Amino acid sequence: MELVDVVVVGLGVGGEEVAGRLAEAGLSVVGVERNLVGGECPYWGCVPSKMMIRAANTLAEAHRVHEFAGSARVSPDWAPVAERIRAEATDTWDDRVAVERFVNQGGRFIRGSGRLDGPGRVRVNDQVFQARHGIVLSTGTRPSAPPVDGLTDTPYWTNHQAIEVERLPESLLVLGGGAIGLELTQVFARFGVRVTVIETLDRVLATEEPESSEVVAAALRADGVDIHTRVLADRVDHDGERFTLRANEARYTADRLLVVTGRRAHLDELGLDTIGVRADQRFLPVDDRLRVTEGVWAVGDVTGAGAFTHVATYQAGIVVADLLDRVRRSDAEAASDRAGAASDGTGAAPDDTVPRADYRALPRVTFTDPEVGGVGLTESQARQRGINVQVGTVPLGSSARGWIHRADGLIKLVADADRGVLVGGTSVGPAGGEVLSGLAVAVHAAVPLAELRDMIYAYPTFYRAISDALRDLS
Ligand SMILES: Cc1cc2nc3c(=O)[nH]c(=O)nc-3n(C[C@H](O)[C@H](O)[C@H](O)COP(=O)(O)OP(=O)(O)OC[C@H]3O[C@@H](n4cnc5c(N)ncnc54)[C@H](O)[C@@H]3O)c2cc1C
Prior knowledge:
By secondary structure, the chain is α/β, with parallel strands linked by helices. The protein contains 15 helices and 22 strands.
């Protein structure tokens, strides 16, 4: 058994950030990763998918030349997209650069699966590490498939195969109409794939405002996508060439099937029982400083606070501050012991400036075209919480910029009338994710509505529609 300061299990965006920063701070840090350092985001998630979206959106813009500027011929080719993902995003799914970065920060990297082995201990391969100051679990999630007969016997795609694809199929069934499914749907449709989306709920993008779902569904249909909601799949078969999905009387067939119905944390693999934490939970429960239990922290998707890279890195900052505070207090206590001073055993006072996680203004962006940005509560979430809700909604076309662009979209504001502040906001449009920033500040800082109304909004911007939505609040 080897004594180190900190062991970080799982080096996705969350774990990589914690491990790197603690190593830079001078701690002896062991970082354990069984697959690629960086995790889903750079190799099979955010980065390559946004490269695909960038490419698909250039095609869509080119198709609009006839509306504004004459004519253009467009010949989509997937090869440059696949090449960019291979060469620029993933280095052919090789993490050498990321491993080197961590080692240069002073960390010690071990490839393997980490598992708790009692309080303060992590076992990886044949080694056991005793962590003097803490263990950080940042093991993320993996795609989960719904319990549909026959599905697991078929060669269906997850996001991994969809991102790694070099030759596009002619047709694709997408099971799941959430953010990831819709982003990929639009990309493939714009490259000429016949895409059918199957969603169990009554609308796609069901976690966002219903108005957002409508705009995105219309945009996808305009791209040729076939969308079926309220469909509960009964059975999936693959005959060696094509997939068939059955739901009641309906049958849907395609060359490929992409399953994007959610993701699951695999807590049963982590040895949680050895530290007295239940493994039969959906996510790892944490407090507002991301502590699971004494000396154990968790960050990222595994906490269930929001499956976003910006949640993982936000949480990582809190864990680093909390862990370094713990180190400082333990060092202070050791110093006072050495000096023979009377110690009450609690060490130096905890640092109250260590931030606490606060997700009231958690931003979410679905990078379809138009983009859907959302922050804080939706209207229905606010009503469920008993808030005295006021809503203001305007189409993006009400702003000069939206009209000039012929852009689809909207701004929707959700206010707490009693407090006179926004508790949620949605911006759908060509730059919905960017326009969201103003709404995120307003929700995060609880900027009074009167202040928001008094601001000057630049003309003609997309975000100027926020001032119209403020006037619409009622
Ligand atoms: C297609 C797609 C698009 C996305 N787009 C966006 C986006 O645009 N914006 C955004 O904010 N988010 C996006 N996300 C979500 C984002 O990728 C995740 O929120 C983020 O990767 C979470 O980071 P993490 O560190 O918690 O987990 P992961 O990135 O999942 O990393 C966890 C790591 O732990 C490792 N691991 C697991 N168990 C063990 C073990 N026992 N021992 C050792 N290693 C282990 C895994 O191999 C993995 O590398 C997207 C996701 C997908 C799938």
